[in-house]
Design goal:
Elements (H helix, E strand, L loop, with lengths): L16 E4 L5 E4 L12 H5 L8 E2 L5 E8 L12 E6 L8 E6 L9 E8 L7 E2 L27 E7 L7 E2 L3 E8 L5 E4 L1 H4 L2 E3 L3 E12 L2 E11 L9 E3 L3 E2 L5 E3 L12 E6 L8 E11 L4 E11 L1 E6 L8 E4 L3 E10 L2 E2 L7 E6 L9 E2 L9 E6 L2 E7 L7 E9 L2 E10 L1
Parallel strand pairs: 10-15, 17-21, 23-27, 23-31
Antiparallel strand pairs: 1-2, 3-8, 4-7, 5-6, 9-11, 11-13, 12-14, 14-15, 16-18, 19-20, 20-21, 22-24, 24-25, 24-29, 26-30, 28-29, 30-31
């Protein structure tokens, strides 16, 4: 049955206030955390006018009490939901209905909560409408507190400081820390790694740090595994062949290596092209990288030389040559590079090294000598003759003679006599 609804508004704070309702009754409210608020509905029911539409609240009938929240509900000091009690002495023998306000309703937009009161036949009173509604506006003091129910474990956020290379490898010292937070309840326990400055200062294939934290919402865990390789690859570069004939092909090899266990292993290696166009000592760069992103480089040395072929008569190449010390020995040879005969050779150099004379095989005599002193002769077409004027002091000794021309060399053995 349709009828009028009655509204009483109580503006509460931490003190007890009394506000007259539209129907003349005085309703007291106390919003201190942990206390109750009671409403006496009997005076309102008695004040219904005789000309209004009436229904009777009999045993088992209900009256609805509605609370509309503006601001936050108060809670007990222990953090449990606040309990709101309503008394209706002329409606219910028991007189009180409790409404528990959950912590989730403490902060946010206005919210309506409903409680039901049961009528009693012995004290039945006529009221207007099918229900009697009260709208109660509660203003929470700034100091009001409520600990919401915690349904989630702590949030753990790792922080990693270090230089991250490739493939998940760090290439520097690493520090791992953890930030632990829980907005709903205090964190009651943490593992040692949670508060530590966890350091990784040596190469490792993987070290794991685990932070475990517990709150009223449960336990959570966060693990971080650090792989560290801060050691660059090693190189042992070479060039082959070495020496290399001018204008011919040669290959450089990096000879790279990178440690594993611990270490990320070698990712790549390479060398620049070998330049063989210029006679003399040269170098070429080689490079290497490991799987962590560390790099290294090194140079390989090599020599570009002319090719010396010979000697021809009177010098033999496969046995010792018997010669008179102090004579000029004609050294005949051919000079070339990858493009053919070299016709512009300007000089040669001669050096000797000691050689044992204790051999059973007999030497072969030099059949003829050159006249004059030492000198280089260009015979054309890449053929040359150098007259080697031997010192008389070489008598009764054996020597290995080496001729060098354009960084190329050619050697023969001699046994000198007086």
């Amino acid at each position: 049955m349709a009828g009028a609804a009655f509204a009483d508004t109580i503006n509460g704070d931490a003190d007890s206030d009394a506000v007259d309702s539209p129907h003349g009754n005085s309703i007291a409210a106390n919003q201190q955390a942990g206390t109750t608020v009671e409403y006496d509905l009997s005076a309102l029911i008695a004040q219904q006018g005789p000309n209004t539409s009436r229904v009777f609240v009999a045993d088992g009938d209900t009256v609805t009490v509605t609370i509309t929240r503006s601001g936050a509900w108060l809670a007990s000091s222990a953090g449990s939901p606040a309990t709101w009690l309503f008394s209706a002495y002329d409606i219910s023998q028991s007189g009180k209905i409790a409404i528990s306000v959950p912590c989730s309703a403490l902060n946010g937009a206005q919210q309506t909560m409903t409680a039901t009161l049961t009528g009693n036949a012995s004290n039945a009173r006529a009221i207007t409408g099918e229900s009697l509604s009260y709208i109660i506006t509660a203003t929470t003091p700034a100091a009001a507190s409520c600990t919401p129910s915690d349904t989630t474990p702590p949030v753990i956020t790792p922080n990693i400081t270090g230089t991250l290379g490739n493939n998940g490898w760090y290439t520097s010292n690493v520090t791992v820390t953890f930030a632990v937070s829980d907005a709903q309840s205090p964190v009651t326990s943490k593992s040692a790694a949670c508060d530590a400055s966890n350091q990784v200062t040596s190469d490792t294939d993987g070290v794991t740090f685990t932070c475990t934290a517990t709150s009223a919402g449960g336990t959570s865990s966060q693990s971080v595994t650090i792989k560290r390789d801060a050691t660059p690859p090693t190189l042992n570069p070479t060039v082959s062949p070495n020496p290399v004939i001018r204008n011919s092909s040669a290959t450089a090899s990096a000879g790279a290596n990178d440690a594993t266990l611990p270490g990320s292993g070698l990712f790549s290696s390479s060398c620049d092209a070998v330049d063989t166009s210029v006679l003399g000592p040269q170098s070429v760069m080689c490079y290497a990288a490991d799987n962590a992103g560390n790099t290294n480089s090194a140079s390989a040395s090599y020599t570009v030389a002319l090719q010396i072929t010979g000697f021809s008569a009177p010098v033999d190449m496969n046995i010792r040559n018997a010669a008179k010390a102090g004579q000029a020995i004609p050294l005949k040879f051919y000079v070339s590079d990858a493009n053919g005969a070299v016709t512009d050779l300007a000089s040669v150099a001669i050096s000797t090294a000691p050689l044992s004379c204790n051999r059973t095989d007999p030497p072969d005599d030099i059949e003829f000598y050159a006249s004059g002193s030492s000198g280089l002769q260009n015979l054309g077409g890449g053929f040359y003759q150098f007259n080697w004027k031997t010192p008389a002091s070489l008598a009764n000794s054996c020597k290995t003679m080496t001729l060098t021309a354009g960084f190329g060399t050619l050697s023969a053995q001699f046994e000198f006599k007086k």
